[in-house]
Amino acid sequence: MNSSAALTCRPPGAVSLAVPALGSREARPRGRFRTLLRRLAGLDAGTGHRDASWWLARHPSSVGRARRLTRERLTAWDLAEQSVAAELLVSELVTNALRHARGTVSLTLSLQDGLLRCEVEDAEPLLPSPRTVHDDDEGGRGLHLVDSLACCWGSARTPGGKAVWFELPASRVATADAP
């Protein structure tokens, strides 16, 4: 998908449907700017909205760091039961960013409206698309995993490149005093 935004949403277990969503409200990533605006407006106080972001070095060790950061943050948000799936999918997106993109890479986790959103941003404007893989291929399955395990995922161009994101249902609401 090479449009300016791509979105895949479905209930778990349903047939996957990829829909180009040029400029649609549903496809816009909830990135740093929205989070910043919500903070400045005081909208996050008491709503259960949480977010955390990190810059990752362009080094293979950043994949393990991204998994650890995800696990630690989900534990702090009382969402440890989501950690296994989130860590796996975050590691796939970070690996793709390190392998296929250039420039800086960032990881953002946010919890809002009963959904955990994980977003990886890099400096490459080309949007990803799942590719056909064969049984003996050693790679190329990352986006298929994201599509299988996430309830929703997509990508969108950003001013500095692109963001690829997925969402998982959050079975618990974070407490007001969680980091």
UniProtKB/TrEMBL annotation:
Residues 59-166 form the Histidine kinase/HSP90-like ATPase domain. InterPro entries: Anti-sigma-factor_SerPK, HATPase_C_sf, HATPase_dom. Keywords: Kinase, Serine/threonine-protein kinase, Transferase. CDD domains: HATPase_RsbW-like. Transmembrane segments: none annotated. Signal peptide: none annotated. It comes from the Bacteria. The keyword Kinase applies. This is Histidine kinase/HSP90-like ATPase domain-containing protein. It comes from Streptosporangium pseudovulgare.
